Amino acid sequence: MSIAISSTLEYLQSRLNIPDMKMQVYADKSLEEILEAEAAEGNQAAIQLAADMFSDPNILIELFQLADPENKLIILQSMTSSQLEKLIPMLETNDMLEGLQFFTQDGLMELLKDIPKEELVKTVFQMFSEEQIIEFMPEKEIDKVLTGLDMDKELLLRNLKSIPEIYLQQMVESVTGEEQDGNCTEMIGKIAQFGDMDYKKAITNLQPVQKRELTLMITSTEPKYYLNFSTEAYTHIINREREKDDIIKSMGVIKPEYLQKMMEKLPQDLLAIVITQVDTDKFADALINKFPETLAKFIAG
To answer: pLDDT tens, 106-137?
Structure first.
């Protein structure tokens, strides 16, 4: 029998009320040939089915038993990669997260590098608290953010007031080479007066633990600075601190349009498997309205 989906034959016999002996005659016939033969003999159910199967998704679902993922897969495996990609937007977020399981953890890191920083940071916040992010962030990344051109200097200086004066004294001493014994206000005043190079030197010379405390105070007030940490730093932390399943679960906050692009990177055979999760009604409708040539192939056998 040339019909690829075996359940089609049973449905056809029941729908068209064809006797068992007659079905044996049709054993090597295509769906199209069976319908034509029955229609020629005046079988009104065959005539109606021939009309409905190209227009009624419900008929198509019953005809090919599309609720069964294996039957969907048979049809999907006959499609080209470009056709499969047109079905990706029909996937729900959870379907695409399941699809991410086909990637290795290193592969996931590469996918995360390709999305906008805003989407990456959203994902990171699903895995780590603000305190953890700053704790795990390399010191050079901390320095880059604190001394970056878009850092609000006034905001930074205000938050220095929370740093014990001994550390502020050390900051000034690291630039001037002179011992300091002034209070917090005096030290911050001196730091504020430093030229650009000396100011940056003072900030980067702050004791590492205090530097992270300062960064956390700033980013807690202005979360936009989390965007200034590099993509590579984030993916390194994720790869080191989290397992694959946790990473994929956290990726559920990524906008569907970017998850869809990730699905496009799957090999064609694996993408077909993922797309079997598409809602059955939507899939049948797509076959009728977007891929009638594929549908025609299965009907013609």
So the answer is: 999 999 999 999 999 999 999 999 999 999 99
Distance (Å, whole) CA 79 – CA 229: 42
What's the rounded Cα separation, in Å, for the pair 86 and 260?
10
| 64 vs 284: CA distance, rounded Å | 10
CB-CB contact of 90 with 283 (8 Å) = yes
The 10s digit of each residue's pLDDT in 23-66 is: 888 878 888 888 889 889 999 998 898 888 888 999 999 888 89
Q: d(Cα 168, Cα 182) in Å, to the nearest integer?
A: 9
Q: Which of 157, 194, 152, 150 is nearest to 172 (CA)?
A: 194
Q: Report residue 277: phi and psi, to 5°.
A: -80, -10
- To the nearest 10°, report the CA torsion of 90, 91, 92, 95: 170
Separation CA 57–CA 82 (nearest Å): 23
3-class secondary-structure state, position 283: helix
Burial of 166 (0-12, 13-18, 19+ CB in 10 A): middle
**Measured distance CA(301)–CA(299) in Å, rounded:** 5
- The label of the residue with tokens 């055979």 reads 269
Q: Which two tokens stand for residue 239?
A: 């790869």
d(CA 8, CA 62): 8
Helix (H, G, I), strand (E, B) or coil at 231: helix
Nearest-angstrom CA–CA distance, 156 and 154: 5
